[in-house]
Amino acid sequence: MPIRTLLTDQLAITHPVLLAPMDLVADARLTAAVSNAGGFGILGGGYGDAAWLSAQLEQLAAARVRYGVGFITWSMAREPRLLELALEHKPAALFLSFGDVSPFIDRIHRAGALAICQVQSIAMARASRAAGADILVAQGTEAGGHGATRSLSTLLPELVDAFGAEVPVVASGGIADGRGLAAALMLGAAGVVMGTRFYATAEAAGDDAAKQRIRQADGDATVRGMVFDITRRRAWPAPFTGRCLRNAHLERWSGRELELLHRVEAVAADFAAARVAGDYDILPVIAGESVGLVHDVAPAAAVIERVVAQAAALLRGAAARVS
């Protein structure tokens, strides 16, 4: 049974479930699979590889689905062509995360697209709304990848109270099943963004070895930190840190970040070799605390069907308890 919200109406989708635009994982295949299943697929533009992005956008054009494109916002500041390249392909929405969104939203609106802005604090939400954000995504620290310091359980209802009468507010972080969707809706969200759960799907572009690590992990197996950012020589400003699965590389350097900075040239060479070998004892698996709720590698459509059916059953059951 579809769950209708302001978000489903605004994006013209059947289910209030959005694909997180995971760098290198949320490719055209996964994006199309989520959209074809009634959710909203969002291509992961990440740090901004124009050649990769162009090829993926062409595949989505051939797939004839409604979709969005997500960017780490300051990648567009460094290379403005990325935004133009995306908008040329007429996506339904742009998903902007981190950094100042104000230079981009007018251009997005002029192209006929919606601006979805992911925020990690009330101050960021205010700035995004002032710039013209059409949808706000409340990202809790439970999420995989980069995030800040607020937990979803308090950030979400606070954003709903402040902005929910103006725009849909969507929940992100730690959501991988129907319980998470139902809980988010009860906290006032108009839908959810899921990343880790969609990473462990048949269509996701990640390596099978990474997907199996997600399937086998529990929520205690993830940690936030800076080790992988230092290793990849991609410095992020405070307060942002990255959540990944624990592995040998992380355990070796956690708490020794200053030493890692001094030895980064040698460590980066080992990291490059690990990429060639597919060695996930060194490479990061970017995943959130919801790994403990992921028990299989399933088709994206099956994931959405399960999540929505479980949420609908829980919401109906909760209503029946109220006399």
In a few lines, what is going on in this structure?
The chain has 16 helices and 11 strands.
Keywords summarizing the entry:
323 residues, TIM Barrel, alpha/beta, 2 domains, 3-stranded antiparallel sheet, single chain, 8-stranded parallel sheet, 11 strands
Number of helices: 16
Q: Helix fraction? A: 40-55%
From the N-terminal CA to the C-terminal CA, the straight-line distance is 24 Å
Question: What's the total count of β strands?
Answer: 11
CATH class of the largest domain: Alpha Beta
Global structural class: alpha/beta
Q: Strand percentage, roughly?
A: 5-15%
Describe the 3D structure.
By secondary structure, this protein is an alpha/beta fold. It has 2 domains: 6-206 and 295-320, TIM Barrel (Alpha-Beta Barrel), CATH 3.20.20; 208-277, no CATH class. Helix content is 45%, strand content 15%. The chain contains 16 helices and 11 strands. It has helices at 6-11, 28-36, 50-63, 73-78, 81-88, 105-110, 122-131, 152-163, 178-186, 196-199, 208-216, 227-231, 248-253, 257-262, 264-277, 300-320, and strands at 17-19, 41-44, 67-72, 93-97, 114-119, 135-139, 145-147, 169-172, 192-194, 222-225, 241-245. It has an 8-stranded parallel sheet. Strand 2 (41-44), helix 3 and strand 3 (67-72) form a beta-alpha-beta unit. It starts with 5 loop residues before the first helix and ends with a helix. The model has no long low-confidence stretch (mean pLDDT 95).
